[in-house]
Amino acid sequence: MIVFSPHEHDARETRAALTPDSAKKLVDLGFEVRIETGLGLRSDHPDNQYVEAGATLSTDRSEALGAADFVLRVNKPPLAEVSQLKKGAMHVSFLDPFNDSELIKALAAAEVTAVSLEMIPRTTLAQKMDALSSQANLAGYEAVILAASRMNRILPMMMTPAGTLSPARFFIIGVGVAGLQAIATAKRLGARVEAFDTRPVVEEQVRSLGAKFVKIDLGETGQTDQGYAKELTPEQLELQRKGMAKVCAQSDVVITTAKLFGRKAPVIVTREMVAGMRYGSVIVDLAAESGGNVDGTVAGEEAVTENGVRILGLTNLEGRVPTHASQMLGANMSNFLEHFWNAKEKTFDFSLDDEILKGCVITHGGKIVHERFAPK
Ligand code: NAD
To answer: Which of 92, 177, 89 is nearest to 127 (CA)?
Structure first.
């Protein structure tokens, strides 16, 4: 069975779907691993490290795509490359299935088994292959580092003969995987941290990290069976904004991570709330790619408002630490293949009755098989 990992289509992408370590794991399992020359250069893994791990280098992407039984990459494939994939091959990547139905149709038509990393169930069994979590964790860390680098102040309290510097105040809105890591990182750097999430179960997690949970009574909120937030009503959102305006105004940094799985992110921080913030404060909007939590966020850009608030809508924050992001992603990929690998027979045990595969396989056998995306 041949595994191939090609370059990313988006030249800005710094991560690789396989590292030398994850390639070695697959080689040891009995896969023949090929990578496109230069795959790991941006994540600090030169070709020779892959060769030492037992992989071979390919300079002919089209040939390698046509030969591979498994194609692993970070982001969705370009439409033009779908027809180059072998019939029956499995393609594993983030796929953006909610927004790219044309690609899904093409993958089905090419008889490719397309796995969407974002659809891997959030279960204990699937944790080792949960790429959404591994990457969100790093994005949460990087959001704090980015904010710290854009602020003109320090984070910890300092008592010096020249006076006392008060600790920076951070407000984290949305406490999923990224938010928890943002809290932990800001605390480690000495900031005072407050946080809010609509899922009540989060309060204890926030406290256990030494941060303060901001209490806002929104009435019934709750979460889905996958642990995702339910959408708030317009009235609840308004209550939330009111409850948060004061906290935002007192904060040096606001990090927003509030997402709704498969849907546009809610606008939580309005222009008025930004206008109420201090000159020189920083907002990092981690939901920028799915519409943004902040009115005024431009995805991929940094903006400064009239009142001197820096709004950072930079995307792919995990891509700013590509060595570790690729390490985690490569581990997620190799764990996924290993989980279904029958080492004796050297076959992949594929069944749509399996809970994990049922959750993340979008196309198979010429059809869109995932219930959320299949034509009704
Ligand atoms: P996400 O990226 O979809 O959303 C980030 C956070 O934003 C969530 O905590 C959500 O509740 C919050 N949010 C949504 N709307 C909001 C609003 N209006 N105001 C404030 N906050 C708002 O979430 P995620 O990080 O992918 O995590 C989703 C859930 O999955 C969490 O419960 C997490 O603990 C769980 N999870 C479980 C596993 C596992 O068991 N294997 C693995 C990973 C994540």
So the answer is: 177
